[in-house]
């Protein structure tokens, strides 16, 4: 909403995803650290195996739950990262809200 409504600030643009070095401007270290958090957050996916013992059709329910987990990671994590990276370029040193309110950061 912020990106397409124009309320994200003057620097909000989809081109922020590939300008100033792209998605990983400082290498894969940030990606590796992010994946550790994502794996921890979706650690509850092992409950699918526990649920399978109680399901009527475990073959179908496990497949469906696993696929939904993958799609949710893509939508919620990768999608939200794309939106946030579109709002501000990676070279921005100050938060936009701090500069508009004249806070000292």
How would you spell out the order of helices and strands?
Answer: HHHHH
Extended strand count: 0
Q: Outline the low-pLDDT stretches.
A: none
Quaternary state of this entry equals single chain
Q: For the terminal residues, how far apart are their CA atoms? A: 27 Å
Average pLDDT: 73
What composes the largest sheet? none
Residue share in β-strands: under 5%
Global geometry:
elongated
Classify the secondary structure makeup into a structural class. Answer: mainly alpha
Number of domains: 1
- Percentage of residues in helical conformation: 55-70%
What is the count of helical runs? 5
Computed Rg: 19 Å
Description:
The protein is mainly alpha-helical. It has one domain (2-88). Helices cover 55% and strands 0% of the residues. It has helices at residues 2-5, 29-41, 47-52, 58-87, 96-100. The protein is elongated and about 60 Å long.
Short account of what is shown:
The protein is mainly alpha-helical.
């Amino acid at each position: 909403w912020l990106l397409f409504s124009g309320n994200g600030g003057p620097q909000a643009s989809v081109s922020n995803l590939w300008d100033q070095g792209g998605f990983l401007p400082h290498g894969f270290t940030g990606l590796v650290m992010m994946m550790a958090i994502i794996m921890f957050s979706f650690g509850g996916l092992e409950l699918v195996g526990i649920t399978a013992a109680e399901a009527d059709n475990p073959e179908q329910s496990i497949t469906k739950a696993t696929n939904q987990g993958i799609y949710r990671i893509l939508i919620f994590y990768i999608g939200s990262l794309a939106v946030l990276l579109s709002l501000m370029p990676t070279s921005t040193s100050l938060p936009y809200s701090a500069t508009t309110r004249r806070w000292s950061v």
